[in-house]
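Lecture notes, unit on binding sites. The following record was shown on slide 14. It pairs a sequence with INI.
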Amino acid sequence: MVSELALEIPQRDCNIAIVASEFNRFVVQQLVAGAYDALQRHGVSESDIHLVWVPGAFELPLVADVMAASGRHDAVIALGAVIRGATPHFDFVAGECSRGLAQLALRHSLPVIFGVLTTDDVDQALERAGSGAGNTGFDTAIAALQMISLLDRLETNEEQQ
Ligand code: INI
């Protein structure tokens, strides 16, 4: 008999932290709106969503770390937009941001969800920050909920074995 854990939305109250970067706010604001939309459509109340703004994507890991360490949130969603333009700065900002966030998830055993756009230009970023489907903020919020449910079920399975 094959045992399979499918992706599901949790059937319990969830508390979510969103850390968003001010840099390229005209894009990131749309990601935040997409994330709120997805969370509220799936029953997360506004009072259980905690939004914190940081200056840029480079600062996301530190504040995500503080939010994760607080023990008050079931998941932390990091939202940002790093746009290449003509600068090699891009690689350092995007690289450190993704590395830092990935480390946090493992350190805290908590879903720390990567919703940072890394694009060549503004048009590509706006394309991924549209309304409804095609909004990375929306998609990452769904991923956060799915990961909460998955970890809940894995913990329950382990307790039962
Ligand atoms: N921060 C971003 O979030 N996106 C960018 O595209 C970006 N660029 O291109 O430089 C950016 N830089 C700022 C960086 O994240 C820090 O806020 C800054 O270096 C201070 O530590």
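Take-home: Residues 48 and 80 are 21 Å apart (CA to CA).
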